[in-house]
């Protein structure tokens, strides 16, 4: 039952580039009329009405929330829709995971557009929990709720015209679905060749130069600002010239930052920098709707009544959010009731002992086998960077003790571990990493892109084993351990990726973990758990660790 509404506001008409006082009349869930008052300028006493914001690329699972809880937080910030890649749960549970996302999202009126994951598993160089084949993708496309082919991360397969990759892209075209891209660092002829396969977007641009090459190749560029990867500052200069072909996205958004804001924050930042409010709002509100054919209203007569009221066009404080003519959020509170949360999982890892994390020099470098007199050796170390998914390779001298290669906290070099969570008794893969800054303890997580094995970083083997075993005991979750037995755990029972608890509670628990990692364990990263989750992401260069070993993301081969 839709109650008729009459809303008095300064109506922002983005295509016409006007802002005029008007009465918006809503009937049967649609905009029935927009009646200007006749005043020639905005009325400062009225709020501003504009279309709702859209996150053009996000993995809902990375919020640690199920879709229905993600929606309840996002709506308070004026987000009415997302283009959501269920790739994470797809790697754990396959097509059943995608169906879980659809089922959990169904009770809420938020306008999710889910994609068919294109790369499950992401690479053959890691152990995933499932596979999604071309046949599976075709089955998914027969569901109208599956709106696009999700990010094609296998860019080498695209460039080399791998038949299996091209089959998935062709299926998307046959079913009239756009194809999302993922091609970090590709420029010039490579970018053009990637786009020519029929791939229409990219959210992985690190520089404006790279983005311009992809725009020239006909791709749309998503300006990403998430909890770990942040490219807004590098790409926002594109807006005046290319606003028709840009969108905003978060990609990965942890619950503590989602609690504070979403796409509204990017809009506020862009306008504060002096960019045209109409250009910015086209990027935030209209472009994703047009590109993905979303059933989202754009504040036009006849459209679904999906719109927001904000206090002004500088602060963009969201006062009210409407979906299909119903008030769903007001003054920071969601008015939708929580939806039931079922628990599904695929988790078989067993506890490990600290001794299993020892790195024997003879295994690494046969020419030094038995030479326990050498005090150090050069070894490839992953270097991570705050706010970036890319890493670097650093060949650093690491100490040797009793034939075992050791971390070197003096150089901020710690151990990194990836443990297969799908195969009981699988041995851990161990490498070394620089950039986390831990001065004690360890962090562990079953959120480890893309296959979501257990990923851990730590100061010493005992702490690492303890943190990993806390995640194992919870059958998925985040854990942080410090000196003297201190520990924090956030269980993630839904596929080892998401909580079954309400969003604000998860945000509070995550904030406690994050604060512990920073204040007690010493990490200087903005989002240490988010950064950790990407250290097994092999499709982002240059050096990463899978459960099978250290991997060169530029050569696409093990080190």
Name its key features.
559 residues; eight-stranded mixed beta sheet; 27% strand; ten-stranded mixed beta sheet; TIM Barrel; 29 strands; 17 helices; 27% helix; alpha/beta; globular
**CATH architecture descriptor text of the largest domain:** Alpha-Beta Barrel
CATH topology of the largest domain: TIM Barrel
Roughly how much helix do the residues carry, as a percent range? 25-40%
When the domains are counted, the total is 2
Largest sheet: 10 strands, mixed
Quick check: average pLDDT?
95
Strand coverage percent: 25-35%
**Outline, from the CA principal axes?**
globular
Question: How many helices in DSSP terms?
Answer: 17
Under the CATH scheme, which class of the largest domain? Alpha Beta
The class by helix and strand makeup works out as alpha/beta
What would you report as the Rg, rounded to the nearest angstrom? 24 Å
Instruction: Specify the CATH homologous superfamily of the largest domain.
Output: Metal-dependent hydrolases
Brief characterization of the structure:
With 559 residues, the protein is of the alpha/beta class.
Give an overview in words.
By secondary structure, the chain is an alpha/beta fold. The protein folds into two domains: 52-296, TIM Barrel; 354-558, no CATH class. 27% of the residues lie in helices and 27% in strands. Residues 366-372 have low confidence and may be disordered.
Q: Which helices and strands appear, and what pairs or packs with what?
A:
Layout: E1 5-13, E2 18-27, E3 30-36, E4 48-51, E5 53-58, H1 67-74, E6 79-84, H2 87-93, H3 95-105, E7 111-116, H4 134-141, E8 146-152, H5 155-159, H6 163-174, E9 179-181, H7 188-196, E10 201-202, H8 208-216, E11 220-224, H9 232-235, H10 239-242, E12 246-249, H11 255-260, H12 263-272, H13 277-292, E13 307-310, E14 318-323, E15 326-330, E16 333-334, E17 359-360, H14 361-364, E18 376-384, E19 391-401, E20 404-405, E21 413-419, E22 429-434, E23 442-445, E24 454-458, H15 461-474, E25 477-481, E26 487-491, H16 503-520, H17 528-533, E27 543-546, E28 549-552, E29 557-558
Parallel strand pairs: 1-4, 5-6, 6-7, 7-8, 8-9, 10-11, 11-12, 18-22
Antiparallel strand pairs: 1-2, 2-3, 4-13, 13-14, 14-15, 15-16, 17-20, 18-19, 19-20, 21-22, 21-24, 23-24, 23-25, 25-26, 27-28, 28-29
Helix pairs in contact: 2-3, 4-6, 7-8, 12-13
């Amino acid at each position: 039952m839709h109650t008729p509404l009459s809303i008095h506001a300064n109506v922002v008409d983005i295509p016409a580039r006007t802002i005029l006082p008007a009465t918006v009349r809503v009937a049967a869930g649609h905009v029935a009329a927009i009646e200007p008052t006749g005043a020639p300028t905005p009325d400062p006493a009225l709020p501003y009405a504009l279309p709702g914001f859209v996150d053009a690329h996000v993995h809902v699972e990375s919020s640690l929330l199920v879709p229905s809880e993600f929606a309840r937080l996002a709506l308070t910030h004026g987000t009415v829709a997302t283009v959501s890649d269920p790739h994470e749960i797809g790697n754990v549970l396959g097509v059943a995971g995608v169906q879980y996302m659809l089922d959990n999202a169904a009770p809420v009126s938020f306008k999710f557009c889910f994609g068919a994951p294109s790369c499950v598993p992401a690479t053959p160089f890691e152990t995933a929990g499932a596979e999604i084949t071309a046949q599976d993708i075709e089955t998914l496309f027969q569901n109208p709720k599956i709106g696009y082919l999700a990010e094609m991360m296998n860019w080498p397969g695209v460039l080399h015209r791998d038949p299996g990759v091209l089959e998935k892209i062709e299926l998307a075209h046959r079913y009239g679905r756009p194809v999302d891209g993922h091609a970090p660092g590709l420029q010039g002829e490579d970018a053009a060749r990637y786009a020519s396969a029929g791939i229409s977007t990219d959210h992985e641009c690190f520089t404006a130069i790279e983005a311009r090459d992809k725009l020239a190749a006909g791709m749309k560029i998503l300006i990403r600002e998430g909890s770990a990867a942040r490219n807004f500052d590098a790409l926002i200069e594109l807006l005046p010239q290319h606003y028709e072909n840009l969108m905003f996205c978060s990609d990965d958004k942890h619950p503590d930052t989602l609690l504070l804001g979403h796409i509204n924050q990017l809009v506020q930042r862009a306008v504060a920098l002096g960019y045209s409010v109409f250009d910015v709002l086209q990027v935030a509100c209209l472009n994703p709707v047009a590109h993905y054919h979303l059933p989202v209203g754009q504040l036009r007569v006849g459209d679904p009544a999906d719109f927001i009221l904000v206090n002004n066009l500088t602060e963009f404080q969201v006062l009210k959010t409407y979906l299909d003519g119903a008030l769903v959020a007001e003054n920071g509170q969601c008015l939708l009731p929580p939806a039931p949360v079922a628990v599904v999982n695929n988790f078989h890892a067993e506890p490990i002992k600290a001794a299993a994390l020892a790195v024997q020099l003879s295994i690494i470098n046969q020419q030094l086998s038995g030479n326990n007199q050498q005090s150090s050796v050069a070894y490839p170390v992953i270097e991570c960077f705050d706010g970036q998914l890319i890493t670097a390779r650093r060949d650093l001298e690491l100490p040797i003790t009793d034939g075992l290669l050791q971390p070197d906290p003096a150089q901020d070099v710690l151990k990194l571990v990836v443990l297969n969570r799908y195969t009981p008794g699988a041995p851990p893969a161990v490498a070394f990493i620089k950039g986390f800054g831990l001065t004690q303890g360890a962090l562990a997580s079953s959120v480890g892109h893309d296959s979501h094995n257990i990923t851990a970083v730590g100061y010493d083997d005992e702490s690492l084993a303890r943190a990993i075993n806390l995640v194992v005991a919870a059958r998925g979750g985040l854990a942080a351990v410090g000196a003297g037995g201190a520990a924090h755990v956030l269980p993630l029972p839904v596929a080892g990726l998401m909580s079954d608890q309400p969003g604000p509670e998860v945000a509070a628990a995550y904030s406690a973990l994050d604060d512990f990692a920073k204040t007690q364990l010493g990490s200087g990263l903005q989002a240490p758990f988010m950064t950790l989750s990407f250290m097994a992401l092999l499709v982002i260069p240059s050096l990463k660790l899978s459960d099978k070993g250290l991997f060169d993301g530029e050569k696409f081969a093990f080190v």
